[in-house]
Predict the structure.
Amino acid sequence: MQTITVGLEKQPYSIYLGAGLLQNKTLFSEQIRGHQVMIVSNETVAKWYLPQLQATLNTHHCDNVLLPDGEQYKNITELTKIFDELASKKHTRKTTLLALGGGVIADMTGFAAACYMRGVNYLQVPTSLLAQVDASIGGKTAVNHPLGKNFIGAFYQPRGVIIDINTLATLPEREYREGFAEVIKYGLIHDKAFFDWIEAHIEGLLSRDPQALTYAIARSCQIKATLVAADEHEWLDIRALLNLGHSFGHAIEAGLGYGKWLHGEAVAIGMLLAADLSARLACLPTAEVARIKTLLIKIGLPVRLPAELSVAQMLDLMAGDKKNINSQLRLILLKAIGQACVAEDVMQNQLTQLLADYLDENTIC
Amino acid sequence: MQTITVGLEKQPYSIYLGAGLLQNKTLFSEQIRGHQVMIVSNETVAKWYLPQLQATLNTHHCDNVLLPDGEQYKNITELTKIFDELASKKHTRKTTLLALGGGVIADMTGFAAACYMRGVNYLQVPTSLLAQVDASIGGKTAVNHPLGKNFIGAFYQPRGVIIDINTLATLPEREYREGFAEVIKYGLIHDKAFFDWIEAHIEGLLSRDPQALTYAIARSCQIKATLVAADEHEWLDIRALLNLGHSFGHAIEAGLGYGKWLHGEAVAIGMLLAADLSARLACLPTAEVARIKTLLIKIGLPVRLPAELSVAQMLDLMAGDKKNINSQLRLILLKAIGQACVAEDVMQNQLTQLLADYLDENTIC
């Protein structure tokens, strides 16, 4: 088992990474303070892993609530079901919520924990690659609004993150591959050597080689932990770099309707757009854009915008993005592979042309 | 204008108290950082004060959302309307929410500010006595759950509180009188001299004498500010004392259906129950219980439980109270007028008898 620390000043916590951790009674017991536990999961994941986890937690009083599976259910209506279950089972302020699932479950459980009785303890137990490398770390919790992804949420840190890489064995191929969008992101914004390594090991990663996979997850978690610890609430421009590709990606997800494209798919084309825009602004060599595109294609991630969307729709949705300040669009761009920056002066006509170039009849996804 | 500081370590803020502050452009401008403002109010209050406030804020971009009036609307469904308005009008992270109304508007606006884009700025502009002395101060924000009052919320502090006592002129008599439950509470838990003063000045207070009223509000705000600054998140047993009467009160509000009894009415009988229980446990002289009861009767506040509720229902709702830890009931009791304590060892049979004694056919309210 590896341990990675998220070194927050006020409440540091650990990410535990290894095979078979779902069966580790000692580890779970250390992380749970009170007697009551509410496992939040979805119908798909619960079938595989809920009985295992219940067995591990058999000395606790364990309730559970199962939500439907998919980004389209990451909304206030489904969130309310968690509150209903907690209240009807008389869970107190000393309860522990436990998020067993992918990014949607991670975000919703964290937000429910932030709000129930104004804040209770929670643990992340991510079972998808995307949740393991991204959603479960850093305390960004939220649900979606029809007009904007993650518009309603809180910064609320978990007490710990327990990653059992064995859970990836049952992850459907499409959801496995989308996770690599976030893995690649860490290389792009912070660590050129890691990007090079991903390129070199992409075959092993796609065939789910445990050794390569463990390294990719651990390195991703380390980078995320570093950036989050440096800027927990995104007040500086450090944590914001983690949003590379996300302004585009969130607009795609909201525009198509949540759940049509997976989050990682939308982020993949978003990162390519950010890289291409960086090249057009003469920040990034064009050859690097091609390199990123090649890697995304190898993984089977989209490199064109969805044909159902228009440039006007994308611009409108991006105008409402959370990172914008006083109606000015803020984008994360690349100066090099391994180095990102925040840009506040992107010209509307450059953005329009960029979107138009990626939105034609030849759209593939 | 008086200024009272809520001396929080991380983010201290001020309560401004005076007549005619709604017209004070300088004061409002100092408190609002960005250009965008979203006024949240209810249909009743907006008729009286929205145009005044809009005129004061005429150099800002001002939107508004009006909710229906009443505790029965302090729920997630109505909260969502605030998010809808913010998102559709493209309010960014730099927006300021402004709560113009009573306790319901204060709690909902604060919670919306806590959640929208994971936290935006907000100001409290309370127009009811109860909101001026209690709800608008201290950053406890929430909506109700059918099974528990304020079950879903956040600790999230406003940037400032602006109390224009002129707004009390239009407050209906019943809502004016309920506010005194919280005023009396401050005397009971923290300041015997203030309780004595309220007793001595009750006629002037009930006739809305501006001088007496200003003192009562200022002293209440000072006491609340002191307790909140000492224990912002209720981790110690200091802030919890502000919940005197509230475990009973919340059970009444939830049990009857929110909005039947006003919050202050439910807290009034709750405080009397807490005082009587304190006397039964030989903590408080019986004569003090009679004194409290006499004052409540003078104000026209309830001194019996509502006949529609049963002892079993009250016990069940109280068992789910937020202050409980590991299924143990925690109540705020009185050692003397001016001195409260947290009790964790209340016997079920004593509580049952107490409730039964206040719940007979002679119920008045």
Observations:
- Residues 162 and 286 of chain A are 40 Å apart (CA to CA).
- The two ends of chain A are 37 Å apart (CA to CA).
- Residues 173-357 of chain A form a domain with the Dehydroquinate synthase-like, alpha domain fold (CATH 1.20.1090.10).
- Chain A touches chain B through 39 residues (CB under 8 Å).
